[in-house]
Amino acid sequence: MQPSGDSAILTIRISPASYTTVPDVPYSATRVTTGVQIRPDGDRIDEKHAVLFYRDSAGRSRAEQPVSIPGSPVEIMIMDPTLGCAYILDPGNKIAHKLIGIQVRSVPAVPGGMDALRRTFASWYAEAAATTPDRSAKTRTESLVPQTIQGFEVHGSRTTTTWPVGTLNNNEREVVTIEESWWAPALGGETISSKISRPDLTEDSSLSDIKLGDPDASLFIPPPNYRVVEESNDFQIRIPQPLTPAAMQQFSHDPAPAAIPGAPFSGVKTKTITHALPDGTREKQPERTLFLTWRDSQGRVRTEWPGEGRLIEAVEIQDPIAGFVWSFDYAAKVARRSAFAASPGQNDPAPANSQSLGTRIISGVPANGVKTTAVRARGTASAPDKPLTAVTETWTAGKEGITLLEKTSTSGGDEALAEFKYFTTMEPDPGLFRIPATYRVIDGTGSQISDATAHAPPAPANGTPRSTVPAAHPKPEESVFTFISAPGMNTPAITRAPYLVKTISATFRLLPEGTRSTQSAETTMANYGDSMGRSRVDGEQGGLWTFAPNTAAVQQQRVILPDIKDPVAGYRYILDPVHQTAHRLVITTRRVNPAQPAPTSVLRTPPPQKLANGTTNTFENLGLQTINGLLTQGLRTTTITPARSPQDHPTTTVGEMWSSVQYPAVLRSTSTGPNFETTTTAKEVSQSEPDPALFQVPRDYKIVDEEGTFSITFQLPTQ
Question: What is the per-residue burial (b if ≥16 Cβ within 10 Å, else e) of 610-628?
């Protein structure tokens, strides 16, 4: 859920699934869930919410639950096994979203009457209780003596799960959870009461106001004045009502960086929370992406806020030159335009209860540190029962006006770390700040804008300079490259087949609005081989591109560290041009003499792979083709990474690689994922003898013998 202006956006994620409902057991009820969170200092936080549920004799069901913002319309979901589909109703906009890919069916009748139904549900619950999502956890399930709750005979079970160290949010100590469930066969096996207990949390859920019999039939069909829209992918619902200030503050996303000219940068802001249980056990929650952001030299800012999964939920572009702010609704292909209002950077005076921590280099730029101590009064949302003391370290880049790192520790034992990752001060692609021509631009009242500024913010001036790091750097940042030398490393040496293959690579980011943005300067790689079997690879190190879910690639400083393999001398050399050092390693070689002839048939396809984390790789042979005069073989690799949470989606990355069958070189490759695309193409190919000096250590280099793992460290040049 993300606010946008005076309204909010609810993101609905669709995963193909099959649901079953129970016919011939009609009823309606209210499910009330209460939770109590207990902190190490004894502070308690109470939560409560209710869901209305209806089911008719045909097995059709309806659930009404509030969305995250108080006072907003409820979210309504209808499942209809008679039609085999599901709907989500949007009361504010009078739309019924029909979910494509969701299958709904009713369970078959159970022969033998109610006794057989009791036995069937008992077996289902026993099987479910004995299953745990993490096989490293130890689970013990016991049946409870039947009892009567609200006039219904109920059967119960208690499941105790023991989580060893490191298996539940990186817990430092063993954690035990207890779940008790009571289900009523007369309600089709519906859970009438449940309780979950763990050291820091207790949650109770129960049905109330249970009424047997068929509810009103109109509850299970979209209202006649609703428009039905079929949805096969994730979609968004805009809640068009004004939000209270308290709701806006509670559910607003992290603010975008200020529009400061002359200080370009890009990066991904993340947050990690470590939670302390009352017994002292610490749990580190998975890292969460707060937003992705880019700013150019003109001060234009693009910010993307992700939702709970990999879907980007909100996109905003600030343009101080044009004087507008655009907020994207890419599900409806609409850009909402409002007036730009300058906001201050993060260089406000430090509060009185703070102390300076000096200056340090973070991600290549100087940052000023401040430590602040704050006491949150009793009765506030974060300290309902007793005062809470929070100590915060903040490191702010003065020129860029952004907080690069913020660490908070509370007297309750919790810690939070917010930091910028993949940070660079290079000029971003101008395409990031453009409005797609296919988008409809509207103002705050919803009226369409058709003037010349609707889609075309001013382009950056030619020759816009990159950001420069101030001369007052206390110390340039260091970069470390690590190499591993395996004893007895066997290196193939292709003799009597000289070659040169130079490739060029580029990376693009696929924007949520459907356009493509160049995210990298081109990188080059050169592969050389001579008739003696010696080889050399000149590749730009440090120019690697890292993609996390919902993140952009960020370029690092680059340097070429030539890698020479000399089977004649029996050595491998890693050249360090910064320190003029040649790191020498002993190698053994497997000679291929003469060069292998080109194959006449396609080579064998690798078998499928499944990694320990659940990731799967499947391969498809693409046959042979000639590229730049060399015969190549193609291989397509499809990688599926499983979802990290129930709200997340699996991701698929497809790569194609065309490799020379005669030389150790890739002439063409592509890799496409959910939000990126990388391409590599050969720009120069030769079968002539390279310069012999390429395979020799320069005379002014010092030779250092290495064994095992070693590192090359040097200071990054300022930009």
Answer: eeeeeeebeeeebebeebe
